[in-house]
Design a protein that fits this description.
Elements: H1 2-15, E1 20-27, E2 35-42, E3 52-56, H2 65-78, E4 86-88, E5 100-104, E6 109-110, H3 117-122, H4 124-129, H5 131-143, H6 148-154, H7 161-167, H8 180-188, E7 198-200, E8 209-212, E9 215-219, E10 226-228, H9 230-243, H10 250-274, H11 282-305, H12 321-332
Antiparallel strand pairs: 1-2, 2-3, 3-5, 4-5, 6-8, 7-10, 8-9
């Protein structure tokens, strides 16, 4: 197995010892963006004695993304936010041709195991009882941290500017990007921050929150993390809650969306009780999140249509692209044509 062999080589080089696997790398479920492998070492040092995770990034992602995510997790973990500790990151070395880092495997289980019907039903109790309060409390704790030094170290990679670079990359087909009118509107109407900048996780759905006995034990998958005003955090989550990108038949999906929107409203109300941040710009950030996910859909469809292998699964948002177009138009007045 290429991944297992290359990973062990890197760990031995880092530790300066001929360690062996106690548990060979095995791919974990989920992983809509990255490929994640659980493993453990035999007789490893103290920091390496528990279960660990190798996080492999897709080929099509910017080269600096793994470094940003590793730095964000370290920043949050060292300040008491339950992010996984990063054990190893080597910016100049790839595994299986991809960027990567190694982090601890946190205890607990995802509050929502996934997006299938069975997994959603399994997480229904948590969503109804705990989603709003747990997620708001985690965000409030994260937003109390000062990320100015972190942002200064990475420049635009860690700010909202990163999203313009991501969206404006050429398509594989060479055709004009169908979302350009939306990008132009967002560029023209980008708001001045109305509150101090904070570190936003950006994707705190139930699959990225680990819980154990109603206690949050981890916040994982920091790929979308951005230094921005708190309205981005709230808008990114409420957009996802409003659209509910779930693989369900449309009649059932309509019911799920109504329930999800109510939960999103409860989350926002709970967050506002603990913060005096100005959230006026939430609709703007809802539109931005919608366009970012549409961009992922367009790139996935373009790759498939062009016969090019796409190194990530089908985006869960692909099945609701028509709803996303309407959602974006309602917040911007711009009608996108995919």
């Amino acid at each position: 197995m290429v991944v297992a062999d290359e990973l062990l080589t890197r760990i031995r080089s880092r530790l300066g010892a001929p360690v062996e696997y106690d548990e060979a790398p095995a791919q974990l479920g989920g992983g809509f963006f990255t490929a994640n492998y659980r493993f453990s070492l035999k007789d490893g040092p103290q920091d390496w004695c528990g279960p660990l995770v190798l996080r492999l990034f897709p080929d099509h992602t910017p080269v600096e993304l793994a470094g940003w995510e590793a730095a964000v997790q370290r920043f949050a973990h060292e300040r008491g936010v339950p992010a996984p500790a990063v054990a190893l990151y080597e910016p100049d070395v790839t595994i299986d041709g991809r960027r990567w880092f190694v982090m601890e495997l946190l205890p607990g289980s995802p509050a929502m195991g996934g997006i299938t019907v069975g997994e959603l039903l399994g997480g229904l109790r948590w969503m109804a009882r705990d989603m709003a309060s747990h997620t708001a409390r985690v965000h409030l704790a994260l937003h109390r941290l000062d990320p100015s030094d972190l942002a200064a170290s990475f420049g635009e990679v860690g700010t909202i500017e990163r999203w313009w670079s991501a969206i404006e990359r050429p398509l594989i087909s060479g055709r004009p990007h169908p979302l350009l009118p939306g990008v132009e509107w967002l560029r023209r109407n980008q708001p001045e921050p109305r509150a101090p900048l904070v570190l936003c996780h950006g994707d705190s759905w139930g699959g990225n929150i680990l819980v154990d006995d109603r206690r949050v034990t981890g916040l994982i998958d920091w790929t979308v993390a951005t230094v921005a005003e708190p309205a981005l955090e709230v808008g990114f989550l409420t957009a996802a809650m409003s659209l509910a990108p779930l693989p369900l038949p449309r009649p059932i999906h309509r019911i799920a969306r109504r329930v999800s929107r109510r939960l999103g409203a409860r989350y926002r109300a709970t967050y506002e009780q603990g913060s005096d941040a100005d959230l006026t710009a939430v609709p703007y950030y809802e539109a931005l999140r919608c366009l970012l996910e549409l961009d992922g859909v367009v790139r996935y469809r373009t790759s498939i249509a062009s016969g090019v292998d796409y190194d990530s699964p089908r985006p869960p948002w692909d099945g609701i692209s028509d709803l996303m177009v309407t959602f974006f138009e309602q917040r911007t007045g711009v009608r996108l044509e995919l």
